[in-house]
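ok so I'm stuck.
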Amino acid sequence: MQTRNTLFMAVVLVAISAFVYFYEIRGRAEREETERQESLLLLFEAEEIVGLSITTDEGTVQAAKSDGTWRITAPVEVAANSTAIETIVDNVSQATHQRLVVEAAEDLQPFGLAEPVATLLFERADGDPLRLAIGKNTPVGASVYATVGDDQNIYSAMSALRDDVAKTLFDLRDRSVMSFAAADVHRLEVQRDDLHAVLARNGESWSAEVPFAGSADADSIDDLLGALESAQAAAFVSDGAPDETTMAEYGLDSPQLAVTLHSTDDARRGLLVGSAASEADGFYAMTEGGSTVFVVEADLLDEFPTDAVALRDKQVLSLSRQRLAEITIERGGDPTLQLVRQGTEWSISQPRQLDADASALSSMLSVLTDMRAEGFAPASNSSTATIRVGLRAPGTDVGAVEETVEIAIGGKTTVVPFDERDREDAEAIEVFRVTPAGSDTAFLVPVEEIDDVLVDLFAVRAKTLVEFAPEELQTLELSSADGATHTLSKSGDQWSADVGELGETDVADMLWDLNYLNLEAVAEEWDGATPDLARYGLAPARYRIVATGADGVVADVRIGSDLPTDDEASMRVYAMIDQRPAVFEISAALADILAGLLENLGS
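replied:
not stuck anymore, here's the structure
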């Protein structure tokens, strides 16, 4: 009996689950889709539409689609903005009515539908045309009245539908000033005022053929092409081929700007820009061989150079950081500084072998490779410093130096930055003359950029004197000049002293200042005989720390006398680290902690 009841309950559970799935879950989705379909104003698929007509108080615009491309067919035959038309089709295909206001209305006038604000006709590839008329706003709510087809049923719909449908010729036509892909342009000609420029693309760079022969400013040219590619007409003036009188009226018979683009598909495209326009803020323009006069925005002309200087490549050195192998800096009165790279790591080879500060060196290399001019001047024979950059073969970051690039740093002058030259309140900045070897032109580079490149040894040397993993330490030997010596040993995570008691944070405080100990300055370095260390309080040292791990000595720090200063916050002491032939200046914090610790242990 119990088994029969269990089977019965299982059958009931399966039946309920099936009911819930087919009615509540699957059925709900089907009912919701049915309700959505019934609420649509027009029932069609976007792919069906091959033509449209929109009538507003500005007239009627007709467009047709062929091979997936839309084109305006009336009132003029011109290219269409396919994206704008496809947006209308998509939005109307999803437009729904809120409610049926009046069924079979006898008078459309009260709803603004006797003379609609906008009337849309869709032509379908197979099927009758579809009609949608938009009337005036409803008394309350963000809604409009609408009718569908030829019946007199009045619906209310969201007012956004009016914005979707009430489009004019200007809204639907292709407003691109020039239709082209900037990446396909391999040659560019510009005629403006007294400037005639011919530019050619070489991979990712540009060179000038006229008015000078040499490297051109690729960033400016790419920006120019990008602005031209995205430029939109601000207004359309006429769509008939203008005669000589009309060309003169718009200043197109002797344009202030003529641009010619040559693309990789051998296509040639031209643009003429004439006099200032009255229809919109901008200038009259037309494409070469075109029949439409339109208005381009005034800002577009700002992208075009006005003189040869604006076309020059403003980057001093075109360097790939991957190819950098060594950098040598020579300036009068200072030792030669040479930096070399092995793999991805840089080090100092002159005036002595030292580790380099990765962060400082990276900043210096960024300035060096990105250095740009704010002006140009004739090359000068005098220089105060020289920078030589050794480069490896292209495509490799190993091997010997294959090429050397050299620049000479000359005297200072002032110049107004390029971006400021059109401003009445523009101020001049101080610059260095920087001349690449073999060039007859000096680049005028801001002083702060050259200061960031002409670094000294201290700026790029590694500043960390001591570095270790605290958990690897086993013993710490502390001593002072008066002969006191203590050994601290670690067991597990706990430190203990051979004599005396350690405070809870004594060792932690000391290791905090010992690990990643940085130098503040170099007091003296030597290659040969050790100098008199007594003058630094290091013969003998005032304090000494020897940190030992499983593999031997991790750090050996000797601390000498204080440096004179009136600022307690910047107190320094002399120090020697390990066996390095140098006396450094370090923060006095470590010495203060040691003094306190040794005093506690001694007591």
